[in-house]
Amino acid sequence: MRQQDFTLWPIRLLLHITGLYGQCIENLAELLWVKHLQTGGLWQLNMQIIYLLKRIAEEFIIMEQNNNQLVRALGLKESISMTIGTVVGVGLFTCGSSQIGLVGSWIIGFTFISLLISIWPCLIYGEMSAALPCAGGTYNYAKRGLNRIWANLSGWHYIISVVAIGAGETLAFSNYFKILLEQLGVNIAWLDSRVIATILIAVFLILNFRGIEQSGKAQTGFMFFFWACSIAWFMYMIPKVHVEYFGGIAMNELPPFNEMMYIFGLVWWCYTGFETCVSMGAETKYPQYNLPRALKISVFLVFALNALFQWFLVGLIPKAHYGILAIADAPYAEGLKAVGLGGFPIILLCIGIAFGGDLSTINPGIAAPARYIYTMAQDSALPKVLAKVHPKYKTPHAAIIVVGIINFILIATGSIDYIASVSLISLAVCYMIGCLAYLGLKVKYADMKRSYVAPFGKLGCYVTIVLYCIMLIFADKIALLTAAVGSVACLIFYCVFTRKHAPGLVSVEEEIGVIEEPTPEEKAKMDKVYNIWKIATIVITVIALGIYLVPMLMGH
Known about the structure:
This protein is mainly α. About 75% of the residues lie in helices and about 0% in strands.
């Protein structure tokens, strides 16, 4: 530290208290300099004053900038964990798998088709996230590729949908947690699941409040705990699987087409949130590499996990008990109870689902939408107070509080099915806007540097929009009405507030900042880690597909 710097501290304190810092001080320094040129005299004193004032201005300008910037602390592992954590949870372990009670082993067909219609959007988002690695994801893409109206609409729908995933997850946790305690001899059936869910949300609000790095590490821990419990449960339950349970459907004839589409929508919901890591682009290290890689890995891991768990449920539960599955809030636990597989299998299952799968979804269900709110507030699409970043923890704490409030409201409904329908509709709308934004970016920013390019991206956009529109036609009507009301509210808010306060677009360089390139050694290490993830993903995906072929090869 230079000698003059020691003199800054009391002045810094005084100026901070009185509020006389930043640009005003810089202007004053410039004025003194001009005055000196005009009058001469006291060269050394004037220079010292000018130096001090300039240094103070720089210090406080930097301080203000740093206090409102997020920290790039997430790597590939954390990005994958955040994404899979958001996706794998309430859908798979509640309403998604309960559809086995209606379609039996045909569930794998629904799951595989869900994978197919999710791959292209993942690749499309991979390209956009590599080019525009900033907080806000679809909001920022739509703002630049379309306009602010579409951007606001996508932002609102994304916030609602991902918060809904987290809220539904807390209720799912509550259901599995109560069954776990029941198996351990503690009966808390009298306790409303909403109470447990509310307490759980409060805990995760605190966790996310304290920092994204801490939250990311916790996320990774949840995911690996879930995997460990899952593998142990799989190995224990394999001998109990009945191959003869596979084949055919759960009813005498196929359900009507509209019901089939409704069932498919709930199964596809098990994939929604696949772009979670994109919303945290401003907190991702080397996002030009890590984000596209995380998206490509995550979508296949989600399929594998869904397929594996569904295979076991089909192989363990005979058709006679499908009626229980169709209406179950916790189909895996309730299905095992129905066939007399209580005790250790249910205990291990509930521990893994509740403390691994569910917790890993709740965590990013707070982190991701909070980053959307933060970004939109920074951009004056929402009140500026929501763009506040905690001076110590560097987290968007005001936005996190808003996410908590929305969670509490959704939890109060107590309906996972309603929450699921609201979430899938809003996410489908968000993804369609994202596809439109992709097409717009290709035109408006044709020369933008793209470290990753989605294969046949434009075609993928058109196909995705058509398929998602068809799916929404058959969604829950009350949830559709809710989404429509939310859209109207968003448009009104835009006209009343956003249009008056929104600034012009800044340059891409200014918005995303300097994106560092890894050193050759770092890049080699990143490539090695990615290849390990890729190989593991291929293996587990092949296994997940292959196990459904076993009953067919055996003639069932």
